[in-house]
Amino acid sequence: MDDSTRRLARARESALSGQRAAQVRPEVRASWDRARLQGVHPDRSLPPIELPEDRVRGLQRDHPMASVWPTLLGTLRDAATQPGHLIFASDSAGHLLWVMGDRSARRLAEGVHLVPGALWSEGKAGTSGVGTALALGRPFRVRGPEHFLSVAVDFTCSAAPIRNPVTGELLGAIDVTCPTPAANSLSLSLVVAAARLAEAQLGEQTRQQDERLRMRYLEHVMRHKGIHSALVGADGRVLHASPGGWLPKRWPTPPREGPAKLPDGRRVVFERLSATGPFAVHCVDGADSTSEALVLHALGRDRAWIRLDGVAHELSARHSELVVLLAAHPAGLTADALARLTYGQDGKTVTVRAEMTRLRRILGYRLASDPYRLVGQTAADFLTLDDDLATESVGALLDRYRGPLLPSSRAEGVEALRDRLHQRLRVRVLSHGDPDALTRWTTAPHGRDDVLVRQALERAGSADRAY
Q: Whole-prediction pTM value?
């Protein structure tokens, strides 16, 4: 131990016993104070091994740092092969994910929990290369006795945080550790260079991923002409906006499917395009008063028409059946129930789930699952007509009855809804006995073969002539 290291060791002992140690760097003193406040003991604490092996393996495969670990290792390989040297990388919380070095160095590291899965944050390990670099958000070198834990005072650590340069997200840190007598003053510069190279690679990967998302989803996002639209990543970054500039460059909070408001009060709707994002965003401010409702027209139509957040869609025949069934069952339907109502007793839930996935591209956040149901206000022509049968005039009811519900559908659930509404309205027409209403019924395509109503009309006509 050289004189400088001895003086630093004496300063550490003084500081940890409560005395002032002027020889210690202010950043290190502040780090020691943070460690003490969080209950770390220099002689009795060890970093906890929080992540089980299977979780570590999963992170080594899926963590954003995984794609640049080979770059980091390649840049620092010379240091990793020197006796007593270790290279390790952590996530943003300080969990070690990769540890590399010669066998003797790794065996020594295992005794102080410097292993994959261990948490080397300041709150658990006190002052260290990884923990303090993450806490300060900048490269940092911890020399021997500057470590808070006594088990680490014989080592020098040089660490640098790694961020995604496009998003600014802190991803983790890279560290080179060696016995203090073997420490090189250039080690921190080497670690910083490796971190910057990794960040450049991450930036290019992010730009390529953004371009793939634009190519895949932009046509879907921009399909509504005349509406302010945008493609927003899962991290809130605006990947494309039309017209440009109508959204801030980044959504201030993690995007969530459904309605939201801009700082200026304008209303927008977020629609999730895949399980992990991105999102289509449409401005619905200024639309008519019914724009917040899902408006469904299915009477007299083989293919239903909906208006959602100010945008009109004509559904396929199968999607029309599914939306009608969901509108008629506001509490929701399981995939099994939808399969029976749509395809009969032999219906397969896998078929329903596939159709619902496709339907969700249109309905977006309005379609929830487990059970499948429509979210928010829904106004369906066949339901409102049914509600008004007892109170509205027969003439007004016939004005609204464009024809039977999805007349070409053979889905059992739709047939039941169609027959019930048709018969209820027919009974109302018969009971009223008005010749004009009877005539309208028998001259419409759905009533031309209705013998009972025609007979009622003939009786009404005979009564009028007798009078």
A: 0.66
What's the pLDDT at 288? Answer: 43
Q: CB–CB of 373/326 below 8 Å?
A: yes
| 288-314 confidence digits (pLDDT tens) | 434 467 899 999 999 999 988 767 889
pLDDT at 22: 66
How far is it, in rounded angstroms, from Cα 83 to Cα 50?
Answer: 28
Which 3 state secondary structure label does DSSP give 38?
Answer: coil
How sure is the predictor about 1, in pLDDT bands with cuts at 50, 70 and 90? low
Residue 101 — left, alpha, or beta (φ > 0 → left; ψ -120 to 50 → alpha)?
A: left
Query: Dihedral sign, CA of 328, 334, 338, 340?
Result: negative
- The DSSP bridge pattern shows strands 294-297 and 378-380 to be parallel
Q: Convert 404-461 into a string of H (helix), E (strand) and C (coil).
A: CECCCCCCHHHHHHHHHHHHHHHHHHHHHCCHHHHHHHHHCCCCCCCHHHHHHHHHHH
101 to 83, 115, 192, 340, 374: CA distances (angstroms) = 8, 11, 19, 61, 56
At CA 11, angle to CA 10 and CA 13, rounded to 5? 65
pLDDT at 267: 84
Token pair recorded at residue 398: 């016939």
Look at phi and psi of residue 245 and say left if phi exceeds 0, alpha if psi is from -120 to 50, else beta.
left
What is the separation of C-alpha 98 from the centre of its chain, rounded to a whole number of angstroms?
28
